[in-house]
Every structure is written in structure tokens, then in C-alpha cells.
Amino acid sequence: MADERVPEAVERNGASRRGGGPTRASAAVVFVASLAAAVGLIAGAGPTLSLVVAVAHAAVFAASLWLVDRDRWRGAAAAAAGVLALGVGASFAVAVGYTFLDLLAAAYPVPEVSQIRARGLRIVSATAVVLGGTLALVGGFATVSGRLRSETVWSYAKLAVETFVVPLTVAALMLLTALLARLGGASEAPVFAPLAEGAGGAVGAVVAPVPGRTHLLTFALLVGAASLAVARGVDALPVAELSTPRTDDRVEATADAVGRGARRALLVTTFALPVTLIEVVLAPSDLRSLVPPGVYGLLAAVTASHGLRALLLATALVAGGTAAAVWLLGRLARADAADAVVALTPFLGGGAVVALAVALHGVVLPPTLSFVADALPGQFETAFARQSGAVVEFYGSLPVVTTLAAVLVGMTAVLSLALALVTSTGALPESAPGPALAAAGVFVAAAFATGAGVGAPLVLGGIVASFVVWDAGEYGATLAREVGPTADTFAPESVHVGATLAVGVGGAVSAAAVHRIAANATIADATTVPFALAVVVAGLLLLVAALR
């Protein structure tokens, strides 16, 4: 009995759901090393604000994954994660975008043409450093929370997309409202009046066509739609549950007869539909000359009858609505109440994002525009201030802020979908996805750090940290699978990480020494080429040994 209860306890504690994550000691090493390396590299390449916002982005993203993966209070947790999607997108945009804008403003205008390439390279390199450091921070925080798994990331991506739908729809309606109000006058109902007018015109064209001629195609489509809706509605109705023992046979017989009649009408209409296309090819006068006048008059009276068309349209709407309502009730009856609430909470989160935009649009928009304008170079600042002011004046502050909120939530959806694809395709190993992401981010940041003006010690330290992060995470995941994630593995992990760190530091010192010697030598020296060749061969041998 004790052995049978162990897997259940492990499942409740979340160990098995973490997919073999690293031990606590290894997770701590991954977090500290990735945090230290990312902070050092971002601070050396970009502004302080980008560093602070990047750390906040990683913390909010990890918290969102933790909320999505909760078993208790799933509805409230999913709604909170939906609201945090706005913060995830905003923090990522500020962390990476502000670096680009700040360095762009500092680099331009360029006094000499020869400096354009160098300054452009610095801007691109610094932006890549901040991007890689942000990914490293996400991986480090996610390693501590233990929630960076393929299924969790896919769940969060789905939640972000569903949350994005609400502000996107509201923003589109607001922008359309403002646009139509400008074009049609402020006294008109800008959205609902044109929509109502268009809907009324469409219904009028279906119910009340032009008299005196045939309308075979539209009439056949109406008959087919009504027949299909009636057949589906009768099939969906719970006839056996609604009838009594005394009326059971009669009700079922009537329902079967109605269903058979509707299906036969649908079949006849389907075969007759190609014939009605003759109305598209021939003009009404040519069609009238092909059939006897009495037959044409009867077809015109039947197919253009306002009452008959209205009856068919009403039948299609009522029967279709009945089928949809019965299907929805059946789904709700079969589904768990908690699952239904969780399915609706992303849309509530999107509504909360819209509510935030409505409440804070007057407070948030002016400083945001000023912040972006101040980060741009002189001429760009003037153009941005003029264009943004014109846009706000034309549409209004609320539609603009709602659109920006929708864009930020959409950015979160794109980021989470990209991460979900990466985790699903095996680019991040299932044993230690968090450490792998952290190591890759640190390595990318270190690789671009030199072009951003970061010193050699930080660059070499970042490269060493990337290998330490990956090795510690992978080794900790292996130990966790063998002895459990809560076992006391501090001693062997300390030895393993210490050895990895010693090898990395030794390699970094050797690289610095080689760089110093090579910088003082010239290609004309007799010892330069053999020395370089020996170093390359030794590096290849060490790389092969490390991979083994």
C-alpha cells in the first residue's frame, strides 16, 4: 500500500508534473548564475531602465506560467494571468525597445559618414544583448518556479490569444466608431447606425426582392437553409425526454416525419440548385421567353413572395437557434462547472484589460508619448510628436490606448506561441528547458556584448556562465530523475559545478592570455602562425573532450 501511495504523493507535490526538473541546489545555481550574467551584460550594454524592466518581465512571465499551472482556484488564476499578459508584453517592449531608442538617440546625428556603420553595429549589438539577457532571466526565473514545460507554455499561449481577442475587438470597434464619426458627423450614431442600416438592407433584399420577375437562386438557398436548420433542430431536440408515456409514440412519429420531410426538401433543393443558376446566365426577358407565361408568372409569384420568404427566413433562424441552444446546453451539462469557468476566464481577463484602458487612458497616454518622443533623435522626435498628436486628436485617447493595450497583449501571445513552438520541437530539452533557455540567452548576450562595447572580462564571464548554467541544470535534472528533486545532493552537485566552473575559468584565462599575446604580435613574426595553429588544435581537442 505504501508503494502505491508514493506516485500519488509525488503527483500532488508536483514533482512528476515538472517533467524531471533540476534539484533545488541546481535550480539555485542556474538562477544565480543566469541572473548575475544577464544583469552584468545588460548593465554594460544598455540603459539601467532596460535592466530593471527585463528583470520585471522575467518575474511576471514566470508568475503567469505559475498561475496557468495551478490546480486550485483555476478560474481566478487564469483571469489574473490574462491581466498579466498586458504587463508581459509591455515589459518586453520597454526592455528591448527602449534600449534601441535610447542608443539611437545618443548615436545620431552622426558627424561623419564613416561612423554610421560602427554606431549602427553598436545599436544592434546592444539590442541583441538585452534580448538575450531577457531570455536568460526568463529561463532562470522559470527554472525556480519549475513551470517551463511544453504543456504549460501551450496553455499560456492559448490563454494569451483568447485574452487578446477581447481588446482587439473593442479597439477595432472604437477606431471604426471614431473614423465614421469623423466622416459622417458627430451627431450620427457612428457604428450602430451603419451596421443597423446594412443589416436592414440585407434582410430587405432577402425578404422583399424586386417583384415582377423570378428569384430562383435566392429562393432555393432560403429553402435549403430552412430545411437544413429544421432537420438539425429536430435531431437535436430531446424528444424522448420531453414526451410522456401516453404521447411518446405520437411525438416521436411526428418528429421523425418532420425530420424526413426536411431532409427530402433539402435533397430536392440540392439537386435543383444547379438549375437555378440559369437565372444568373440569362436575362429576365430571355428567361420569360423560354417558358409559358403562366408558368413564369407562377414562379415569379412564388419565388418573390414576401410572406413565404419571411416564413422561410424565420424558420431557418428559429430552427438553427434551437439546434445551437440544445448543443450548447448539452456541452454545459457534460462539462464540469470549473472547466466552464476556466474556459471563460481569458475573456474576462481581456475585459479587465479593456477596463484598465478605460480607467487610465487619460493618465497613461501623455507620459507614454512624451517618453517615446524624448528617446528619439531630434528630427524623429519632432515628427513623432506631430504625428502622434494628430492621431490622438483624430481618434481620441481612449481608442488609441485600447489599441496599444491590444498590441501589447498580442505581443505576449506571439512570444508565448514562439516559446511553445520552441519547447514542442525539442529545441529546448524536456529534461531541463529552463536551464537551456537561460544558458542560450546568456550565450547570445555574451556573443553580441563585444559589439556593444562591453569589456572582455564580462564577455568571458558570460560565456563561462552560460556553460555553467546549462551543465548545472542538466546534471541537476539527471540527479532529480534518479534520486528525486528534494534529495540531499548538495555535495555531488558542488563538486560537479565547481569542476565545470574551474574548467570554464581556466579556458577564459587562457583565451585572455592568447588574446594579449596575439594583440602584441604581428603576422610577420615567425612564431605567430605556429602558435595560433597550436592554440586552435588544442581548443578543438578540448571541445571534443568536453562534448564527450
Automatic annotation (TrEMBL):
Ranges for region Disordered: 1-22
Keyword hit for Cell cycle: no
InterPro entries per UniProt: DUF7519
Alphabetically ordered keywords of this record: Membrane, Transmembrane, Transmembrane helix
Compositional bias of kind Basic and acidic residues: 1-11
Transmembrane spans: 25-43, 49-68, 75-101, 121-144, 156-181, 265-287, 307-329, 341-364, 404-424, 436-469, 495-514, 526-547
Pfam entry (one): DUF7519
Signal peptide: none
Superkingdom of origin organism: Archaea
Keyword Transit peptide: no
Protein name: Uncharacterized protein
Organism: Halosimplex carlsbadense 2-9-1
